[in-house]
Amino acid sequence: MAKRKYLFLLLMLLFAGTKAQVQVDVKLDSLQLFIGQQTGLTLSVTFDAKQKLKMPSIKKGQELVPNVEVVNVDDPDTVILNEGKRMTVSQAYTITAWDSAFYYLPPMQVMVDTSRYESNNLVLKVYTVDVDTLHLDHYFPPNGIMELPFLWAEWRMVAFGGLLFLLMLACIGVLFYHVKHGKPIVRFIRRKKKLPPHQVAMDEIERIKSERKWAEEDSKEYYTLLTDALRNYIRDRYGFNAMEMTSSEIIEQLIAENNEEALDELREIFRTADLVKFAKYSTLINENDANLVAAVEYVNQTKIEVDPNAKPEPEIIKETDQKRLTQVKMMRIAMVVLVVLSVALLAWMIWRSADLLM
Hints:
By secondary structure, the protein is α+β, with helices and mostly antiparallel strands. The protein contains eight helices and 14 strands. The longest helix is centred in the C-terminal third of the chain and has 37 residues, at 321-357.
């Protein structure tokens, strides 16, 4: 009998130890309130993580006691303790009372595994609202809708977004115009020092002399290069397109500009060049040398000396068509990106404005 008694006591101690592992607490945010006011009631249960918890089934609109109603039930909140060994589950309720009195709130019951646990009890004091019984005919209508003050801090981002949106629209318009007309926004222009016409001609004649083209049996290429150098010089020196004119037309155009000696030298060069190119005339080396010297003499006799103190005029070389097409393609891509960003920005501004006006 003694062994059975000790075994029974041991089981009771183990059962008591298990019960002690569960803690049930309940508290009110305010123990006093007026009729119709609301306060929070929080039920917290701490237990082992391996145990199964069942909270009381309390729904919105249910009365805890007569005249004490639950107006809202929040979602449970769980906190893990002791590295996952224990946990605390909290359930928040919002309650109100509809009559003045002392209300005894009975303990709330929870189930942990197969055992029932109760919380502590609470007392709620509800006060009535004073009524002016001497002036019952004096009543006040409900207040009107209050207009919220304008706060620049709330609308500042919307205003900045609007300015950015207008700037994007302007950029899209500029890009659309340039893409439509195939014009790049930025023109890459390379500048270099512009040489006077006689200097260009003398450099070209010197290059022809160094290559010795006339030493070959066929002098056609030599005279083509030599006359092209003279035609380019005449075009830049006198301002008419000598490259598209015949030899006789050039001479007639220069009669009013050159002296007879210079024209004689030019006539002889063009005459020999025409014979070589069109009549397959074969020249001698000394004849080629003489025509080269005559070309130099003609340039020296008709050149205009440049003032050494004058600022040199730059020669402008525009970008190629390939570069222009590349720029237009990049503008198309930039325009598409700006359109997408502007639509997204507009949607954000509409959403933000609607949120602020609600």
